[in-house]
Amino acid sequence: MARIFVTGGAGYIGSHVVKALGEAGHTVRTYDNLSTGNRWAVLFGDLVEGDIADRETLKRAIEAFRPDAVMHFAAFIEVAESVRNPLKYYRNNPANALNLLEVLQELAVPRFIFSSTAAVYGTPETIPVRESDPLCPINPYGASKMLVERFLADLSFARDDFSYVALRYFNVAGADAQSRIGQCYKNPTHLITRALKTALGEFPKLQVFGTDYPTQDGTCIRDYIHVDDLASAHLAALDHLLAGGGSDIFNCGYGRGYSVRDVVESAKRITGIDFTVEEAPRREGDPAALVADSSRITAQLGWTPRFADLDVIIRTAWDWEQVLKRKLVS
Ligand code: UFG
After folding, report:
1. CA 324 to ligand 1 center in whole angstroms
2. Which end of the chain has fewer CB atoms at under 10 Å, N or C?
């Protein structure tokens, strides 16, 4: 069993990975500034409250823990916000990742798993998109993650004692099957969460951003992946590195796309609520279609998804939204 240091482990994806690591018997330490994360979301290991910009606190927390690997989730994640406020993204994502990597060099931490994103591809020329396809982000969020991938490639080339896996997430959604943890943001922007909160009456209507895309029904296509399948991809990447495997990059998606209208229809069916939907202009920074070729992670890491079904994703998210509403009210 290994010792894993997790930045952003109190956040949505990080907390599901911490859970999976803990359940697999690994020793975990979460490092999180709780700006968007929550203490209650950390189900295993300890939590050190700190910012990745605070190099001294970060170094002390890592040095005392002596990790075999670091998983780095702490980052800003909203495409539209990154278009409005790019420097905020370049500061927190690449600049602070550089801090972290320098600290890991100083402490000779040998393995790193990075939360990257399908947004590095921009508008892909071919769908499904493969890891070897050109990187051409169309928003600062994607560019900020691409920069960190470049740092990692150069660093692992320069150092024999450092290897990494970058996981390019497609659209992560869903929640823990027991509804212990799930997405919890102050201003959620993601489609599935917005749809379900609209069903719960927390928003008056759901806007569909763009109905004139060159897709079958005119709305954007995305590859939705259940957060617990994404968590198991991290464990597979960790096993790969612990077994001496080399640096690599993998798409994390199912290879199946759904339109915004598909999601709305599924959300209405599962909730049983005919919430108000309004057609709206396109949102800046949105590619028309983003679907993973996931054959590489399946073949090389033996990753086997267990929740590859839009209804399962939406059902677990719906169960969680109801628990969260009670949690926030009480
Ligand atoms: N959408 C709506 N209405 C909403 C919210 C979203 O129509 O209220 C649409 C968006 O315009 C987009 C689709 O639903 O077409 C999905 O949007 P999300 O905000 O749920 O997710 P994104 O595709 O913008 O981005 C997510 C992650 C990124 C990641 C990307 C990869 O936030 O980190 O998936 O596919 F890079």
Report:
1. 21
2. C
Whether the pTM exceeds 0.90: the reply is: yes
Which helix (DSSP H) or strand (DSSP E) does residue 15 occupy? Answer: helix 12-23
Whether residue 283 has its Cβ less than 6 Å from ligand 1: yes
- Per-residue pLDDT of 239-251, as tens digits, reads 999 999 999 999 9
Residue 258 is among the residues annotated as catalytic for this protein: no
**Separation between Cα atoms, residue 110 and residue 132, nearest integer Å:** 25
Q: Is 127 left (phi over 0), alpha (psi -120 to 50) or beta?
A: beta
pLDDT range class, residue 80, cuts 50, 70, 90: confident
Q: How far is the CA of 286 from the centre of ligand 1 (A)?
A: 7
How many angstroms separate the CA atoms of 100 and 70, rounded?
Answer: 10
Q: Order of strands across the sheet with 221-222?
A: 258-259, 221-222, 289-290
What is 191-222+255-329's CATH superfamily? UDP-galactose 4-epimerase, domain 1 (3.90.25.10)
Domain ranges of the chain: 3-173+225-252, 191-222+255-329
CATH of the domain spanning 3-173+225-252 = 3.40.50.720
Taking CA atoms only, the protein residue closest to ligand 1 atom 35 is 170
